[in-house]
Amino acid sequence: MSTDTIQNKICELEKKIAKKKKKLIKLKQQLPDEEIENYEFRNWQGQIVTLSELFGDSDELILIHNMGKRCPYCTLWADGFNGIVNHMENRAGFVVISPDDPDVQKAFATGRGWKFKMASCAGTSFAKDLNFMDEKEAYWPGVSALYKDDAGKIFRSAYSYFGPGDDFCSAWPFFDLLKKGINEWQPKFEYK
């Protein structure tokens, strides 16, 4: 196959993928909204903060379900969010929730220079209730899109799980362009 033929097939496939993504977005927008209780979390000072308070001045919230300090993949995603947090917060509230205790969460986030809001869901049923914990109490990373109505009730309008190759970490598509692809690479907490 000639280079032009291959490049044309790539362009054609990329256009199809873009159309499919638009269809996926429209389907997610058709899902019925799910009412969510006003959970209580703990901030870095150990104080109670409600889910409603995490919205800040917005009526919408992008809530990241992070597995915490133990997960290098979740750390990779969070490192990426650090660069876009100002853009995200200009559109909606943005918070990262993890099961780490507040003091562990604060030390880890501070050490990495993270600038976004965080809260601890340790000791709550939050992750399980929102389907980000399995029967064996293993956490799953992902994101929930929430909003508040005029009466202050909280709803989840959509959610998605994170995993290698997803759209929520900009590293994956860059690695895909390399001659050897990801080549069994795995994220680490630190690199030499």
Written description of the protein model:
The protein is an alpha/beta fold. The protein has two domains: 1-30; 33-177, 3-Layer(aba) Sandwich (Glutaredoxin), CATH 3.40.30. The chain is 39% helix and 21% strand. It is built from six helices and eight strands; from the N terminus they run αβββαβαβαβαββα. The chain has helices spanning 3-30, 51-54, 72-91, 102-112, 126-129, 171-177; strands at 34-36, 40-42, 48-50, 60-65, 93-98, 117-120, 142-148, 154-161. A six-stranded mixed beta sheet has the order 1-8-7-4-5-6. A hairpin with a 5-residue loop joins strand 7 and strand 8. The relative contact order is 0.16. The model has no long low-confidence stretch (mean pLDDT 94).
